[in-house]
Amino acid sequence: MAAEQDGNTFKILLATDIHLGYMERDAVRGNDSFVTFDEVLQLAQTHKVDFVLLGGDLFHENKPSRKALNSCIAMLRKHCMGDRPVSFQMLSDQAVNFSHSKFPWVNYQDTNLNIALPVFSIHGNHDDPTGVDGLCALDILASTGLLNHFGRATSLEDLSLSPLLLQKGTTRIALYGLGAIRDERLYRMFLNKQVTMLRPYQDSDAWFSIFVVHQNRAKHGATNYLPEQFLSEFLDLVVWGHEHESRLEPERNQQQLFYVTQPGSTIATSLSPGEAGKKCVGLLQVQGKRMKIERLNLETVRPFHLEDVVLAETRIASDYTDATKRIEKYCIEKVETMLEELELQRSGNTLQPNLPLIRLRVDYSGGFQPFNSLRFSQRFVERVANPKDIIHFFRHRELKTGKESVDFGADMHEVSHGDTTQRVEDLVKSYFQTVEQSSQLSVLSERVMAVAVAEYVDKDEREAISELVQSQLKAAETYLLSHTVPPEPEAIEQEMRRFREQRQRNVDEEQQEIMQAVIRARARRPDDGLTIEDSDDSAGSSGEGTASPAPRGRGRRGQGAVTERRSQAGRRRAGRRQRDVVISPPGPPIFAVSRSKQTQAAGVQPTQRHIPTMDNVFWGRGSNSAETSVSRRTCSQRNATQTQGVIFDDDEDDDPFQTS
Asked: Strand 391-394 to strand 357-363: parallel, antiparallel, or no bridges (unpaired)?
C-alpha cells in the first residue's frame, strides 16, 4: 500500500528553540519570533501531522511577558483546536508521564477540549521551572489544555525516564523526553549511573524509540555537554534541542547505532555563524521501524548574512597613511554586496521582514586600527535591522610568556552579541583562573560566584548573589567557630585556605548548598507574574489521588478507568514503583517496562539486535515531493478504539536487555 494511503504512518513535525519573545521590545525585530512560530503551526496543519514535537526553549525568557504568553496562547488556540480527529492512541500510564501536572492526562483526551493538533514539548534552559513551586511557562500552557509538557525531571538523584507509548495502526512509538538540566550535573549523573530509561519489556525492539533532549551537544568544557555515547543504544532517533545550528539530516552515531537530528532554532538569537544558515523544521514520518525526515524551510524568517574579513589578507597595508579610510571603504563595499546577495535570496513570502540582518566580522590583527563603527552604522539605518552592531572588530590575542591576562569586560561584550559560545559561568571561571593573586577570592568559591552571576544574568534572580554570598559566609563562620584558631590574621588566612580546599573536595555537598541557596533566593523574589494557587483537593506533583476524566464525550479516544497500586517502598525517593493501568474491556496482551541502565556506564554488553542501515531505516530518501498522509478516522471509529494496558515494572532483577 502506498505511503499516502497507509494508516500505519506517524507524521510528526519537529521544531526546537522557538524563543518566543526574543527582542520583543525592538521596534523592528519585535514580532519576528511570533510570525515564525505561526508559520510552524501552519505547516503542521498543511501537512496534516499527527502531532507537533518541540525540543525546548519555546520562550526566550524564563518569565515571559504578557505579550509573549498571550500571543503563544492565541496561536495554539488558532491552530490546535478543531474537529479533526486524532488518529493515534496513548498506551502508557499518563499519571506517570504527566505526574507534575494539575491535569495528568494528554490534552486531546480531555472531554472539555476539542484538540485537533496535539503539541508535546519539553522545557529548555530558557524556560525551565523556577521558584518554590517549580513552575515554568509551559505549565501555564499545560493548564490551559493547549500543550502537553513532558520530560520533566522529578528527582536529580535517581532519574527515571518513562516514555510516552503511542500507537497508530501497527506502528508503535516510545517517546522519551528530558527537559534541560545543568550540563555538569547531568554528566555526573550519567557517570554515577543515576539515569534510567524504562522501555517496553515485551517486543521491546518493535517500538520506534525517540528521545528529545535539550543539552549542549558541542563540547564546551570537560563536563559541560552531553556525550552521545552516554545515551542508550536501543534508541532509534535522538531529537537534539538547544543547539541553534540546523543539522536536520540524521547523523548516525557509529558507537550507539542510533541517529541524531538537530533541527536548530527558528529564529536567530545571535549574530554568529551557527545562526547564518537557512532556518527549517522537520517533517518526520515513522512507519514500523523505518523513518524519513523531510526538510521544510521557513519562509518568514528574517534574512541573515554573515561574513568574515581578515585585513591582513587584503591589499591594504597597515603602514598606509590612509589605511583606516581604505578599510572603511572596503567594509562599505562588502556590506553593499551582502545586501545585494540577500535580496536575491528572499523567499517571496509577503510576511518575510524587509530589513535583513547583516554581520561583518573584521579581524584587524597585524597592526591595523579600527575605524568609528558608530559613524559606519549610520550609513545603513533603515536598510538593515541591526545598524548598531552591523560590524564587529576583533583580533587574535597574542599570548605573552608567563600569566595570561583576560579582559573580562571585553569577553562579556562579545557574549552579549552572541559571537561566542561561552556562558557566564565559563567567563567567571576563566576570570578567576587568570586574575592576579591579590584579586582572588579568599572566602567564596569560584563555583558559587559562577552560579550566582548566572542566576542574576540569565534568569533575573536579583536575590541570588546576596543569598549565595550570605550562605558561603555563614558556612565559613561555622567552620571557624568549630576550630580553635588563634586570633592572628595569618592563622585565620591559613585556616580559610584549609576551608576552601575542603570545599573543593566535597563537590556534591557544596552543590547541594548552592541549590538550597538558589531556592531561597527564588522564594524571596517578588511575585510579579502569573501564579497558580495550590489547593488541598487539587492534584499533587506525583499525580496521586487524581483520576483521569470519565470515558465519555468526544475527546476520550477509548480511555478506560485508571487505577494505581503503590507499595510503601514506592513512596520513597529512588525506591521501587509499580503502576498499573487497568482498561475495561481488556485489550491485547499487556506490555511491561523494565529498567535499562546505560550500557556505557554500567558496562553491560549491548543486546544483539538488528543493526539499522540507511536502506532499512529510511524510505523514500531524496523524494522531497512525496508526502505521507494518514487516513483519518471518523469520530465514531476513534471512540470505538480500545486502549491497551501498560504495566511499569521497576524490577532490577529482570534482564535489562530482554528481547521477545
From this structure: parallel
